[in-house]
Backbone:
């Protein structure tokens, strides 16, 4: 008997069934818990993807315009409708749409993602604050989730197994410009009284910029109207940026950094390649990034050559004439008066086009749409190109033509747009204390400007060392277009809109 009891005690057959029977409730519970966790994770993932998509679509409209919030709300309501599963009562996928989320627009974010969004970051007046809205927070209204596992996940006193799941996403809009020289120009329409100032976009749309000659010069460390300055860039040489038309980096539409300590001779030699002038270290360059414009008429004297520009002063009238300077120059703004009549063009046309009468060129680039105004310099420049007038020669002794001949590279790559550059416009009066050094400022906008004539030295003797420190004459230009909805859209290709998630 004792032996039988001992054998029974030592017999381990069937022990696995006992262990399984003991562990089965735990295994089933763990499996159910894993199913719950997977379902809850999938629900949160669906909601988060929906919040992210809504935030990105909404932020894509926050471009700083006065109607940006209106358009952002329209995008939120109409563009995105994500599906989610496993919520309470959701036998089929449920649509997460505008009604299931709340949104708020922000002007800034705390430095750390761990910090809560402050009241100071939130746009409280969406009518007047639309231009400041750079970020949007999308918060999904929490939806219920019922667990299978028979333990309450509710942090409250409810005895059921349900809890709520939500999602939050924050996205922002940035706009950068890549195809621009590393220059800024002071806004000539900024005044000491904000009520009378105009943005460069407003002035352009009103026709205030049309056919005016702007003369911009770097004169000291505190620029004002009529001045320009340099920007931080990704290039080893400012000269490269001036010649190629790029800063080697992209600038954020909301912030640029000024730069000091550069020889401005690099500015003129870089810009002058567009006029088929290859000075200093650029005398034998073949890089197409330094190619000339397809019309380089500049009123050059017979003693001018590919490496040195001398304006024709023989006559009167001179034997060659550049696009004429404006009249009524105002040093407080750095601008001349607009071209007042077609007679402005009589001498230029007669000298450069075989004594012909001026053909009354339409003002096709006038932003107001009035083509009966006297043509701007850019209009005349393009008319010469489009009507095969570039090859016309001025009288002896200059006999100047507008066709380029000095570039050592492929002259078939000459391009009308090479006389256009993009640059930043800054309200220098409002930011004067911040422009002296490497400081960040918000530009008023960006403009496409037409180079009227080559940049010269104040002292003709300094032309033998164009890259040197000799004082420069102003850069002479016309504004052809501006960025934003008030412009003609030619800068849109240079602007890059970027939307990204921040939280």
Residues:
């Amino acid at each position: 008997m004792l032996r039988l009891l001992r054998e029974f005690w030592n017999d381990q057959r069937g022990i696995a069934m006992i262990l399984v029977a003991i562990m089965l409730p735990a295994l089933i519970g763990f499996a159910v818990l894993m199913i719950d966790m997977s379902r809850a994770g999938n629900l949160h993932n669906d909601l988060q993807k929906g919040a992210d998509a809504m935030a990105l679509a909404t932020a894509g409209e926050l471009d700083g315009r006065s109607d940006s919030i209106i358009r952002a709300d329209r995008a939120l309501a109409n563009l995105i409708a994500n599906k989610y599963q496993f919520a309470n009562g959701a036998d089929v996928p449920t649509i997460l749409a505008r009604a299931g989320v709340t949104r708020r627009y922000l002007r800034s974010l705390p430095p750390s993602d761990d910090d809560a969004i402050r009241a100071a970051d939130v746009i409280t007046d969406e009518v007047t604050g639309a231009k400041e809205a750079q970020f949007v927070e999308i918060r999904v209204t929490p939806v219920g989730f019922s667990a299978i596992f028979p333990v309450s996940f509710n942090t409250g006193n409810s005895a059921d197994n349900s809890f709520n799941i939500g999602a939050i996403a924050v996205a922002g809009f940035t706009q950068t410009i890549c195809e621009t020289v590393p220059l800024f120009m002071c806004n000539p329409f900024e005044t000491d009284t904000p009520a009378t100032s105009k943005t460069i976009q407003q002035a352009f749309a009103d026709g205030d910029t049309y056919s005016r000659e702007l003369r911009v010069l770097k004169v000291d460390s505190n620029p004002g109207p009529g001045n320009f300055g340099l920007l931080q860039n990704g290039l080893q040489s400012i000269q490269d940026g001036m010649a190629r038309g790029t800063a080697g980096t992209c600038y954020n539409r909301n912030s640029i950094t000024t730069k000091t300590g550069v020889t401005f001779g690099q500015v003129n030699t870089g810009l002058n390649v567009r006029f088929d002038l290859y000075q200093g270290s650029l005398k034998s360059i073949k890089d197409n990034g330094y190619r000339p414009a397809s019309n380089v008429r500049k009123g050059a004297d017979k003693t001018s050559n590919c490496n040195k520009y001398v304006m024709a002063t023989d006559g009167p009238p001179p034997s060659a004439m550049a696009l004429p300077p404006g009249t009524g120059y105002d040093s407080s703004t750095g601008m001349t008066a607009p071209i007042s009549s077609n007679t402005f063009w009589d001498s230029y046309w007669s000298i450069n086009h075989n004594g012909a009468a001026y053909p009354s060129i339409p003002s096709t680039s006038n932003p107001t749409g009035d083509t009966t105004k006297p043509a701007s310099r850019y209009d005349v420049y393009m008319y010469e190109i489009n009507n095969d007038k570039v090859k016309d020669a001025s009288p002896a002794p200059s006999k100047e033509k507008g066709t380029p001949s000095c570039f050592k590279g492929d002259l078939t790559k000459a391009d009308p747009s090479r006389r256009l550059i993009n640059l930043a416009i800054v309200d220098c009066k409002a930011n004067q204390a911040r422009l002296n050094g490497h400081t960040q400022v918000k530009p008023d906008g960006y403009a496409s400007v037409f180079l009227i004539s080559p940049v010269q030295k104040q002292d003709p003797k300094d032309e033998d060392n164009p890259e040197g420190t000799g004082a420069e004459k102003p850069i002479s230009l016309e504004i052809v277009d501006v960025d934003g909805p008030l412009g003609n859209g030619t800068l849109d290709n240079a602007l890059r809109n970027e939307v990204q998630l921040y939280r």
Observations:
- The chain has a mean pLDDT of 83.
- The first strand starts at residue 82 and ends at 84.
- The chain has eight helices and 15 strands.
- The first helix runs from residue 2 to 10.
